[in-house]
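Lab notes, practical 5.
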Amino acid sequence: MARPKTQLLSAARIADGAIELVDRTGDVQMVQLARHLGVAPSSLYSHVTGRAEVIDLARLRMLERMEPVGPAHDWREAVAGLLRRLTALYARHRRILPLLSTTAVACDRSIAVYEPMFAALIDGGFRRDQLRLIVAMVEFQAFGLAQGLPAPVMSDHIRQTLPAYTASVDHSRYDLATATEFSVAMVIGGLEAIRTHPGAP
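Output from the prediction step:
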């Protein structure tokens, strides 16, 4: 019997299947993923060690689909570019975000996506001990922006006793593009203050 010309499974196909499954159901388990891909569960373990690696592969696949982040001429450009790109990416795959937030980044190809920002921050005068905190903050912002504002809790009692909160609810209109630019300005402004302040943490 002739061998198939293409492999039934590959890391990319597993990652794509995991993203599709999570987008649809909100989770990925090995048995369900195998069924989704039309293979035996044992076949998956020829390519991955388990669920955590599948999620990490899905993260890499998503980052590979993101508009590339090239070398930046300025740290502000790097921060703004990464925040905008991550937010747009995560907004397309909101249901996978809880899985990404609880799974470590283990693939060097995923880490490499952030290298231009690390380099731009160093060139911009930020201390080495601040770099991972800054990148993590950008990630957290992108996660939050992609998920949007939670539904507000309101009642007659709240309206009567919490007027400032009530005003915030009555005037809130969440638009992803507007919120992203607001966040970009806030993050860059805060980082500029830290960079120029001699006593910055």
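Observations recorded by the TA: The longest helix spans residues 176-196. The two ends are 66 Å apart (CA to CA).
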